Amino acid sequence: MTQSNDVSNAPVIAVLNMKGGVGKTTISAHLFRHMLEVLRKSILIIDFDPQFNLTQTLMTQAEYQTFQKNNKTIFSVMEPPSAPTLFKIAKNLGPPPLVSEVTKQLRYWTATKKTALGLVPGGFRMTKYTLVDDPKSLQPVQKRFMEFVENARKEYDLIVIDCNPSSSFMSLCALTASSHLLIPVRSDLYSILGLELLDEFVSGLPAIVNKPKQIVLINGGPGSAVNAEFESTLRANSKFGPITLPTILKSSTLLSAKEGRVGCATDKKLPHVNALKRNLTKIVNELKVPLGWGL
Amino acid sequence: MNADIKKLCMLLAAAGFDRYGAEDVIQAIKSADTKKILSEFDRFNRMLLAGGEVREKTFNKKYQDDYYKDRSVAEKVYDLLVVESRLSAKQSFAALEGMLQETYPNRMVIAPNPKSGFTAWVRLLSKDFSDSELLHVASRIRNQIVHGLNEKDDWVLKE
Q: Is A241's CB within 8 Å of B158's CB?
């Protein structure tokens, strides 16, 4: 464990691609869980996708229901739990909840009992922000979210925001709060074009003054191996090639969602899990430089 | 720690196993039948005593774990230029040096030393260029040679 002080210089990574199904949730869950293991950094993962698949990966249904019942989800970060209807934003939002109030502790440091890996669970109520079309009324919501992330940066070494693939208010919030943007791409044309759309979206938004540093990660699975033509097209591109991580996240059935298998693949004693860990370790080490954690 | 276990750890480290590989070996031993392991041990011993080398076909088998093994960046650059682009070693040196200078005009490129080999030079370049940058430059050369400079009639990433 390296941090937890008042200097809020912890990186914030938004995991996003405009194309769906590129492995954002898989990466948010498994890669960053393994990062904790390898680098001993405390990490808070925020499930910012209304489909909340990340939450479903890391929490049991019973655990989630308790959190939801007690309004301990990302929605409470955006607005007070008593927020009115699906189409209206609450007035006088007030400060966001404490980070610890809405965080599910997934792993803790044995010495201090402080959270080493935390999850702010997602929720379907977040779809509200795809329906409300008054930008002015959403400003206080964004401000509240930003304040929450700033508070989290004081407590954790890294904040990860698992985003939904859209150019919505939620993406704007995530990108405004982020210092880095991790863009998973799959070995297909739409995925690579989604990368370009995202770049245009980020560049074209005046609200994002400090543009997040982009990092591209090739996600090899599930399915066949990464197409060599796809890989060389991406790597040869003058904008995206030099920011594409050398190591490819290899396809693995261990990373796919399975009924009755809640939690991270690397925490389980399954066949070939060490080969997966080796692959994840390489990616984690490659992320150290862009995240400013040196060699 | 038991001295024999220490010896086993030393052997595994010397054989190039990483922590995850060592863990796999330990787990495999735990779950394997002692008699079967000893029978394999005896077989290897007999081969050694007969003056033969110990070689195992299992190294050629396609285990799922092999899928995860990555080639080094230097090897990937070699594949892109020598294997896929069919450049000679001499041409690869010149092409990579030229493209690095063109792509990063303000940065110094260590002069190639053909005597030490192509991949050794690429490893030296890693001191000044990130692995992503080296793969970027090698992929540009590869694409220019394999596809030419003609634009594809397709949806492509803009330059």
A: no
Q: What is the ipTM of this complex?
A: 0.80
| Domains contained in chain B, number | 1
Prediction pTM value: 0.83
Do B139 and A189 make contact, defined as CB atoms within 8 angstroms?
no
pLDDT in tens, A65-83: 999 999 999 999 999 877 6
Most B-contacting residue of A185, A190, A232, A250 (CB-CB within 10 A), to test interface = A232
Compute the nearest-CA separation of B47 from chain A (Å).
31
Q: What is the pLDDT of residues B47-66, one digit of tens each?
A: 888 877 666 555 443 444 55
- Residue B98 in domain: yes
Structural domain for B29, as ranges: 3-153
Q: Which of A90-99, A261-270, B150-159 has the lowest mean pLDDT?
A: B150-159
DSSP secondary structure letters along B85-139: S---HHHHHHHHHHHHHHHSTTS--PPP-GGG-HHHHHHHHTTTS-HHHHHHHHH
Q: How many CB pairs under 8 A join A and B?
A: 89
Query: Contact at 8 Å (CB) between A121 and A62?
Result: no
